Amino acid sequence: MKLLTSIILSVLMLQALAKPTFDEQNESEVRPVNEVVDAFRAQIDVQFVRYTNFYDRANAAMRDYRMAHVALITDIYNRIMAVFGETIEALNASETEMEGLIQKKIEMRGDTTPCIQNVINHRESVLKFTSENIQQCAIFANQTLATMLTDVFYPIFTEIQTVLSTVPLSVVEVLSLGNVLQDEEAIVQYLVDRYDVIQLQWLAQVSQLLRWDTNRFENDGLFLVDDTRVCLTEDFMPYIVENSRLEKIIQEC
Predict the structure, then answer these.
(1) Which segment of the chain is annotated as a signal peptide (predicted)?
(2) Most buried residue, 110, 148, 212, 237, by most Cβ within 10 Å?
(3) Residue 171 near residue 46, CB atoms below 8 Å
(4) Is residue 134 classed as helix, strand or coil in its secondary structure?
């Protein structure tokens, strides 16, 4: 009898050790939702979306600025080339006319007389001198435009683009600096305030600065067009005067 009682007690003890003494609960009841953490995460998500949307809008604006600047560069370049085209066209027309006069005079005389040869030689010297001066005008225009491309717009554009690239990282940066378990309100408020500052800087400073550089490039470019025209005119006018003098000489040969 004592042996049977001992066996029964041993079985009961093993059953007691194998099963919990309380009813099994759902996981949600064992780990209740932390409303504070969830609220903080939701606020951080909102801020991340705000910063990301701002970054997308700013990048789109930067693309518009860059494309407008490329169009401006193209316009200035085409204006300069038009000035050179006008000068070269006038030079070619004058040379064609002079060549016709010389050939006509050679036909009249039946040969290239010393007088005609002297005109030809002098004409070649004048043409060479004028061509070299036009080349110098081209070098001046090219160097000036290259300096403008290096010093105006793109430096500030690159600087702003670099700063903008860090905007999406702002949320992560702030989270890495604060204690997310103790500084929830301070972190969220800092992100709100920082967003306002970034937005104001963009609207009041960055945008204005880009517009200022765009206007500066346009004004400098138009001045360059005028300077190129002046440079070519100063070189071409002596050619016209000398060519007119040679025309009179060839007619007397």
Answers:
(1) 1-18
(2) 148
(3) no
(4) helix
Per the domain annotation, does 35 fall within a domain? Answer: no
Candidates 98, 60, 87; CA nearest to 233 is: 87
Give the predicted TM-score (pTM) of the model. 0.73
Residue 15 belongs to some domain of the structure: no
Give domain status of residue 9, yes or no: no
Question: Which residues are CB-neighbours of 231 under 8 A, at least 6 positions away?
Answer: 136, 137, 140, 141
pLDDT of residue 112: 86
Helix axes 35-109, 207-252, angle to 10 degrees: 0
What is the residue range of 157's domain?
43-252
Q: How many domains does the chain have?
A: 1
User: Residue 24 burial by CB count (10 A; 0-12/13-18/19+): exposed, middle or buried?
Assistant: exposed
Closest CA to 165 of 81, 58, 26: 58
Supply 105's token pair. 């005079």
Reading phi first (left if > 0) and then psi (alpha if -120 to 50, else beta), residue 31 is in: beta
- In angstroms and rounded to an integer, the radius of gyration of the C-alpha atoms of the chain is 42
DSSP 3-state assignment of 240? helix
Residue 196 maps to a domain: yes
Ranges of residues in the chain with a pLDDT under 70 are 1-36, 178-182
